[in-house]
Amino acid sequence: MPDATSPDATAPDATSPDPTSPAAGPAASEQGRRPSAARADLRLLRSEMALVLSRRRNLVMLGVLVLLTALVGVGIELASSDGPDGGGGPPFLATVTENGLFLAFAALTASLPVFLPLVVAVVAGESVAGEASNGTLRYLLVTPVDRTRLLAVKLVATVLYAALAALAVSLTGVVVGLLLFPVGDVVLLSGTTAPYAEGLLRLAAVTAYVVAMLTTVAALGLLVSTLTEVPVAAMSATAIVVVLVQIMGQVPQLSWLHPWLFTDGWLRFADLLRDPVADDGVAGGLLLQLGWVVVLVAAAWARMTSKDVTS
Hints:
Layout (H helix, E strand, L loop, with lengths): L6 H4 L14 H30 L1 H25 L11 H7 L3 H10 L3 H20 L2 H6 L4 H34 L5 E2 L5 E2 L1 H31 L4 H18 L30 H28 L5
Antiparallel strand pairs: 1-2
């Protein structure tokens, strides 16, 4: 047993400084700040998501997406009952009526050009401009929340809402498809057959791809929202830009520009319905969105960090 009066028993190890002493200095302080900063970011994100989901307009938009998807299913069912040719409807009607899972794919295809970007534009356009309009942005920045973190939280919250919107369309398509149409093995675009469970996994991948496409709209709306204090103006401008870019994508004289438009790869998720998956198109679409998101977020950050907040 060591002597109680020995240095080993009474003195701390000289090689391990006390974290409470000044000698611990910046290292211990930095280690203590990191978990605290992460918890603060999570609290800020939860608060932002609660704010987004507490707005009645945002909940109504989710409900409208669910209703539209259900109406698409009912419309296809009514059209298919007119005769074997589906009442002269579009060719995908036969695919949906043969397997209800394709209703989810059809609903995503129909919603992506207009409805999904519109709801994301509304949330993104209000993210910063809404705070400025209500006079809460200045007080929010008085707290220990720097502008970069605030901008990042606003973007993540908008992308999470976009994910909720895409999931609402997908899940409604699956449920309505189960209720109205037969389900079973899925015939992929390549002609091969996959089990229904694999079809659900491919639907999850398609939904994730759609969310990635909507991330660019969220970044665009965030940028526009930093340029004005009028939320409606930010929402409208974001939606108009998305529509204009899609129109440009349909003009043959601008074919040289098409590969650079952020809407160019939106419908490439069809490659996820092939066996094997044609990953070149999917990877190209994701890379294009990544480039646009980096540019738009950088521009929003430059504007936000140099903005003179007066309200």
